[in-house]
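User: I'm putting together notes for a lab meeting next week and I want to include a structural view of one of the chains we've been expressing. I don't have a solved structure, so I'd like a prediction I can at least talk through. The sequence is below, exactly as it appears in our construct file.
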Amino acid sequence: MTESPGYVWAMDFDATDTRVNFQTLFESAPGLYLVLDPELRIVAVSDNYLRATMTKRHEILGRNLFEVFPDNPDDPEATGVANLQASLGRVIRRQVPDTMAVQKYDVARPDGGGFEVRYWSPRNTPVLGHDGQLTHIIHQVEDVTELVMLQQQDDRAQQQTAELQARTERMQAEILRRSDELHQANRFLATLLDNLDVGVAAMNAQGEWTVFNQALRELYDVPEDWAPQLVAQRLADLTFKPDGAPLPLEESPLMRALRGEHVRAADVLVQAPDQHERTFVAHAQPITTSDGRRLGAVAALHDVTAMRRAERFRACEQQVTRILSTAPTVEDAAPDVLQAVADTLGWPHAELWLIDSLNDTLHLVAAYSAPRSRLDGPVGGTVDKGVGITGTVWATGQPLWVPDITASAHLATEESLARAQACDHLGIRTVLAVPVRDGDTVLGVLTCYADTPEHDQDLLAMLLGSIASQIGLFVATRRAADLRGQLSRTRDDFLTLVGHKLRTPLAIIASNASLLTDEPHAAADDVRLMLQTINRNAGSLCDLVDDLLELAGLESGHLALTVTALDLADVVAAAIVAAGPAAAANAVRLHTDLPDHLAMHGDAARLRQLVDNLISNAIKYSPGGGDVHLHLRDEAGVAELRVSDRGIGIPSADHHQLFGRFYRASNVAHQGIPGTGLGLALARTIAELHHGTITLDTAHQPGTSLLLRLPGHTATPKR
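Assistant: Thanks for the context. Below is the predicted structure for the 719-residue chain, given as structure tokens.
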């Protein structure tokens, strides 16, 4: 008996002793067989199986079934291995045959050219030994690929026939549905076009109207039943170029697009009956197919009246700014301003009224009327508060829009009625009046008159209010300048009075008191004491007057600086030497830190005056003695002089008033220290005339520390 791995192929046969080779019989069997051991290794295979699977016996015997026959890696839905594993698993567990449904199990081509699609009908049968244990599994298959393919072809043919019939039915239903959708879409498109606030018109290639939406019909007042010729004539009659010239239909954006032109942002004017002129920006282009065939043209009109008007008002604001910048008075500027406003609005008349504070009325500053639209001024040229349109705006401080002056409720006087009749005679109906303000204060009223219907009252009120604000600012500025001039003249008159009417008597009083005091035969001691008091106070008054006159003269420019090259270190050193006696008398020690030289340009006398003031204050306000430190140095081209003391200091609440005129700190009164309160004001003025600053070091405690900073060599002091 011969044996192949795991399987017995030869055996004795009866008494004839003829031996039959069952291996040859098995391998030559007409069916497709494969014998597996319990570990699913291939132990025998029929020749037909080898031919059907395109394999060779010596290459597959002893190998695992699924190693030899894996799933097709190019078929992500392949289930052959999984299904066969499940069937073989059932045979092993149950030890009964298992018949599988037809399986798609692709076979690898021997040349490595991928997998070939195959369909199989498998049956797996267990082989049991004498002890009832599983020894082998016979895997029998039938190649049903052709049958399956034929069945699939038949199924596909039947499916294609059914699909064709179903497709025909669907196409019929789709045609009906699309026809209905097209009808609905056309209705939707027509409704959409009619609901747009943009005017849309279109023509076919033959120049026939195909679209003329509701916005255009309303703009041009065209009924739906008008013939195309009437529509074209209406467009030609009411459409104009930006300069106001008629726009022939042949030159319109739509006709230009029909000739192949792409029109972008072309302005056109439309003057419909009984409406104000409106500005539109037109876009138009040809309608072409993908292959370039022209089907027609379409145009859209966007209303940009408000935007263009706003642009004109911005230009008007710039023009008004130029007018006001060169005019000496509002009376000089008003005519040109009113003409610019009226031209921008396209309105025939404008007026500017200002409040006369003496008689509490509005008086007419200026009026402008376009040619051939002259509107006579009101009787007397004045308006009372709350009377008429202009007077109502004065009273309320709010813009007032009157669409029809002849029906206005604000006509309370004969003058107002006469004005309304004059307006009606010229075709003027609409009035817009806005307040001229300076902040919350009403200074006057700007009133404008229109001879066309207007609808953008909010926009116009805002734009006209901007012009009125410019006028209000100009009036307030000129009045402030006049007031400053008056104050300056008053101050000069006062200083002249002080200089000539006060200084002379004070000097006479002081000199005579001094002579009487020095007289050998003077009166008693109490009289001498009174004379000394008179002399001392007269001297203080003279010092006060001198300081006041000097400060005023420097601030006004009446006292000019004498600018020379100087050494600031020498100026400060001289001031320290001069302050020595006062410091000694007040028990104050002066500590100095000065460079050898610090060159700059300036007025040496005024700078010495400034430094004297700083040192004098430091000594004066150190009543109990102490130390005063002076540090002078050049910091990156800036001269810095710091004067610090440990005296009574300045209360924090008084810091902001430190350099004001006649300022004296609240704690000085308790110390009995004399002074005029002009020293630091004079010092700061001198510093500013040299482009410098004086600041208080608020962190310095106790006492006071002031820092003087003066620019270096090239700074030219103010004259």
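A couple of points you could mention at the meeting. The chain has 19 helices and 31 strands. The CA atoms of residues 102 and 121 lie 5 Å apart.

User: Perfect, that's what I needed.
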